[in-house]
Specification:
With about 120 residues, the chain is mostly beta strands. It is built from no helices and eleven strands.
């Protein structure tokens, strides 16, 4: 098990930027695939972006070109840089860790609110 703690959420105007961070507890962080997911009120949790242990990235179509996922294995941290934010990006954002496409370690979530 790896413990994950997100930070960096907040309130921002449309068109603004935020950077989310997720700090992991385990020294084997570099071997984990990491992902960012989000859940808006009344909606199901959806995948936002992932980064493999080899730093291969994947983005949902709705955020491609606006969001960037990255990782710093020396700091056991994964980041989500979010630019050109839209009101529809408003959600609780969760960091997750796992292997392959199976994410079984989750953070507590951080709220991102984008005002129009």
């Amino acid at each position: 098990q790896v413990q994950l703690v997100e930070s960096g959420g907040g309130l921002v105007q449309a068109g603004g930027s935020l950077r989310l961070s997720c700090a992991a507890s385990k020294r084997t962080f570099s071997s984990y695939a990491m992902g960012w997911f989000r859940q808006a009120p009344g909606k199901e949790r959806e995948l936002v972006a992932t980064i493999s242990s080899g730093s291969i990235t994947y983005y949902a179509a709705s955020v491609k070109g606006r969001f960037t996922i990255s990782r710093d294995n020396a700091k056991n941290t994964v980041y989500l840089q979010m630019n050109s934010l839209k009101p529809e990006d408003t959600a609780v954002y969760y960091c997750a860790a796992g292997f392959g496409a199976v994410y079984n370690n989750w953070g507590q979530g951080t709220q991102v609110t984008v005002s129009s």
